Automatic annotation (TrEMBL):
Keywords: Receptor, Signal, Transport. InterPro entries: DctP_fam (IPR018389), TRAP_DctP (IPR004682), TRAP_DctP_sf (IPR038404). Residues 1-20 form the signal peptide. This is Tripartite ATP-independent transporter DctP family solute receptor. Belongs to the bacterial solute-binding protein 7 family. GO terms for biological process: transmembrane transport.
Length: 336
């Protein structure tokens, strides 16, 4: 009997030692986040990510370090999302358009002329619908931390000033890798080609494509105006970004560090959006000095809008009609 008690005592002392060690390990363990984006180091997206790095490193007391790579150094949006799934990279921040091949409901944000303004987008993205979409990425091993902003996209090209859909006819336009974008540009009479962002500048320079569409900040900061003479303020779609983290990496973090990462994602979202809006409006003005910038009249804009509207029906099944209706209802109830 005595022997049994002695063994029980020895085992429990050993186990309590193990647990104590386990706990100690967790609080001393350090983590490394490798984060990559497609835009360059002048973009609001890069500055937002650097702020995320600063907050995470400071608030984790150095237990997490963040290495940031820009200009598609780690690959394009799709490749980086796949690297997150494989556990080879921890963070990326793609446009929602390429997320559609991972989770089709994200296609709701590709619907042209969906958000009347950025505040309406914020209401949807930061509300219940946005949170449900972020959470839904769990089925593909990704965790959506927050929606950041890419912004309203505008057409540029090297051939001619575009005022109406008729002027788009025959233009070779690079699009993001997304079927709705391809369809919408085909409907407008263009010859669209999906292509990774990192290949775009040289494709325009070499005449592989005549044009592309992106927010004003990107057109200016990526020097697209050097190879594009014409821009039109089509504002045809509002592109959100999603700050993504590999779900397994996030779940393996101790709870206090999960909070540090999540809080930093929200704080840097606010900074990124503010800066992005400033850049998009300031750089539009700067672009007017170096290229022809066409401001569409409401009637001209309506012509683009009515031509691409059929994609709402074509894609309602893939996205889910209920989701489209609830986004539209949310925009309305937010007062826009
Ligand atoms: O960092 C984001 C970019 O990789 C990309 O999403 C930019 O809007 C974009 C595009 O046209 O590919």
């Amino acid at each position: 009997m005595k022997k049994i008690w002695v063994s029980v005592l020895v085992i429990s002392i050993a186990m309590s030692g193990l647990f104590a060690e386990g706990k100690q390990d967790d609080s001393e363990k350090t983590y490394k986040i490798t984060a990559g984006i497609g835009l360059n180091d002048k973009s609001a997206q890069y500055e937002g990510l650097m702020y995320f790095k600063e907050l995470v490193e400071k608030n984790s007391n150095g237990r997490i370090t963040v290495d940031v790579y820009h200009s598609s150094q780690l690959g394009d949006d799709r490749e980086m999302m796949e690297a997150l799934q494989r556990g080879e990279q921890e963070v990326t921040c793609p446009s929602t358009a390429p997320i559609v091949s991972f989770q089709p409901e994200f296609g709701v944000f590709d619907l042209p002329f969906l958000f009347p303004n950025a505040e309406a987008a914020d209401a949807v993205l930061d509300g219940k619908i946005g949170q449900e979409l972020l959470d839904s990425l769990s089925i593909v091993g990704l965790k959506g931390l927050a929606f950041w902003e890419n912004g309203y996209r505008n057409l540029t090209n090297s051939k001619r000033a575009v005022y109406t859909p008729a002027d788009v006819n025959g233009l070779k336009v690079r699009t993001m890798e997304n079927p709705m974008h391809l369809d919408a540009w085909t409907t407008l009479g263009a010859n669209p080609t999906p292509m990774a962002f990192g290949e775009l500048f040289s494709a325009m320079q070499q005449g592989v494509v005549d044009g592309q569409e992106n927010p004003w900040g990107t057109i200016y900061l990526q020097n697209f105006f050097e190879v594009q003479g014409f821009a039109t303020d089509t504002g045809h779609v509002y592109s959100p970004f999603v700050l993504l983290i590999a779900e397994k990496f996030f779940n393996d973090l101790p709870e206090d560090l999960q909070k540090v990462v999540q809080d930093a994602a929200i704080a840097s979202r606010d900074r990124e959006r503010e800066l992005n809006r400033k850049y998009n409006s300031e750089y539009k003005e700067k672009l007017k000095e170096v290229m022809t910038v066409v401001e569409l009249t409401p009637a001209q804009k309506a012509e683009f809008q009515s031509m691409v509207m059929p994609v709402y029906d074509t894609y309602s099944k893939a996205i889910g009609k209920d989701l489209i209706d609830s986004v539209l209802a949310e925009i309305k109830s937010a007062g826009y």
